[in-house]
Design brief:
The chain is mostly helical and about 170 residues long. The chain has seven helices and no strands. Belongs to the bile acid:sodium symporter (BASS) (TC 2.A.28) family.
Length: about 170
């Protein structure tokens, strides 16, 4: 196309390492030393995790749609939603087909885990990655729209498919 650009790979990888990998390693190390205490006290990590995820989603939505430079009309947003739902359903269907082939050694429970886990994408990792990779880019909020739609779509589709997949799994386990 006659254009070029440079990407600061070292900077991006070091920031991603510090943002994602280091906290994970520290958490695993600390967990070994306070595991017994945590099992006795049973802090509400589920509620804390949900609140943090909700706050990340909320702040990202605010950053995205409060940006006056975002040029996203309703028709484009509807098309994006349709494409994301189609992609999500296609991925779930393909993983279901591949995990239930005749020569597959996966159990029905394995198949359910594969269908839901392999197509899962998280805002908690995606948003920091976008902010690091596209730091300083004026249309960052526009780039985050598909991820903001994908995350709720996977939750909605997953909850809609639970009864169907549960009945399939129960019938296969008998």
């Amino acid at each position: 196309l006659g254009s070029s650009s440079s990407v600061p790979f070292t900077s991006i990888f070091s920031q991603l390492f510090m943002t994602v990998v280091v906290p994970l390693i520290i958490g695993q190390i600390v967990r070994r030393y306070i595991k017994d205490w945590l099992e006795r006290k049973k802090p509400p990590f589920g509620a804390i995790s949900s609140c943090v995820l909700l706050m990340i989603i909320y702040t990202t939505f605010c950053d995205t749609f409060a940006n006056p430079n975002i040029d996203l009309d309703k028709f484009s947003l509807i098309i994006i939603v349709f494409i994301i739902f189609s992609v999500q359903m296609s991925f779930m269907f393909l993983t279901f087909l591949f995990s239930t082939r005749n020569n597959s050694t996966f159990t029905p429970a394995d198949t359910v885990a594969i269908v839901f886990c392999s197509t899962h994408k998280s805002l908690t990792l995606g948003i920091p990655m976008l902010k690091i990779v596209f730091a300083g880019y004026e249309h960052l909020s526009l780039i985050s729209v598909p991820l903001l739609i994908y995350h709720p779509a996977q939750i909605l589709l997953g909850s809609l498919l639970v009864p169907t997949i549960k009945s399939w799994m129960v019938s296969r386990q008998k």
